[in-house]
Automatic annotation (TrEMBL):
Source organism (scientific name): Candidatus Nanosynbacter lyticus
Source organism phylogeny: Bacteria, Candidatus Saccharimonadota, Candidatus Saccharimonadia, Candidatus Nanosynbacterales, Candidatus Nanosynbacteraceae
This protein's UniProt keywords: Cytoplasm, Exonuclease, Hydrolase, Nuclease
Main localisation: cytoplasm
Exonuclease VII large subunit C-terminal domain sequence ranges: 118-305
GO CC annotation: cytoplasm; exodeoxyribonuclease VII complex
Gene name for this UniProt entry: xseA
Protein name as annotated: Exodeoxyribonuclease 7 large subunit
Amino acid sequence: MTPRFSVSNFLAVVNQTFEAVFAGAVEVEGEVVSFKSYPPKYAFFTLKDDDGSVNCFVGFSNLRTPIEDGMKVVVRATPSLRDDGKFNLQVQKVFPLGEGNLKRSFDILKQKLATEGLFDVNRKRPLPRYPHRVAVISSTKAAGYADFMKISRDRWGGVKFIVANVNVQGDGAADQIIRAISYFNQMAEPPEVIALIRGGGSAEDLASFNDEQLVRVVAGSRVPIITGIGHEIDESLCDLAADVRGATPSNVAQLLFPDKHELVGHLHFRLIGVKDEIKRAIDEQILRATMLQKDALEQWSSQVRDAINATLSQQKIIAEYDPEMALQRGYAMISGDLQVGSIVKITTKDIIMKARIEDSERRNDN
C-alpha cells in the first residue's frame, strides 16, 4: 500500500531520512556562485559543478572563512527540505579548496580586518622583559613545540610553563585554540604572555590560523600574545593580529627569553667597567685628599710660623722690661721706703748694698 502523508508530515519524514542516511551532516564539494550576504545574520549561495547545483544557507556565525563567487569549496552541511518544498543545504562550515582559493579567502578577510584596525601597530603591546609565567598553546606532540621548549630552557631558567595541548590543524583546531586563549585570559593569576606556536605545513594545514573568530580572539586577548606559526615565509592572520610575531616556534623562544650565557657575559663586561670606574673614582678621591692634606699642612705650618714669630716678638718685648736686663747694662735698682732718713736697698749687676737717704729734692723735668 502506498504511504500517504500530509505535507508537513512528508517534509518531516524526508528530513528525518536525510538525517539518518547522512548521520546528521554531509560534505559537498563545488564552486560558489550567486553568493549573497546579509550581515550580521546569514548568507545564501549556490554550490555547483558541471552537472548540477544545490542551494546553500549559512548563518554568519558559521561562515568563519570568507568566500565569493568562483571559489571552490567544501561545505559541511545538513540536507534539508524546507517548508516551501525547496531543497537546500544548511551549512555548518565552509572550507576553501586548494591554495588559490585559500589565498583568495585569506586576502578578503585580511582586508576586512585591517579596515577594522585589528592589525594596527599602535594597539600592539611589548613583551615582558624577563617572563617567569608563560602559557603555551600548541600540539605537545609536534616538533615545533619540542624545539620551542628546548630552546626556551637552554636560554633561560625559572620559568613556569602552562601548556594547553590542542589540535593545530584540521576540523575543530580553531575552536580548541579559542577555548585555550579564553581560559588563560580568565585565570585568577593569568600568565604574562601567551605563546601560540605551530611548525611548518601546507596552506591547508595552516588554514585554522586564518579563522575569523580565532583572529578576533587573538586581537582581543588581555594577555599579550606572541605567535610562531609555520616557517618564516608563512603569514597567517593570527600573526598579524598578535602583539609580536615570531618567524618560527624556535624564533618565539629567542624573542621571549634572553640568552643567559650572553647576559652573564654582558654583566661580566659591565662589572669590569664598573670596577674601572670605581678605581678611577677612588684614585681621584685619594688625589683630592692628598691635595687637601697638603693645603691643610701648608696652612697649619704658616699658622705655626706666625705663632712662633708672635711669641718671639712678645718675648723680646718682655725682655725689654726685665729689670735684670737693666742691671746688665750698668743700671742699679733701689727698693724700699724712699723717704729722707730711710734705709733702702741698692742692687747692681754684681752687688747689693744698703744706704740711708740723707736728702732728696724733686726732679725738675724742665
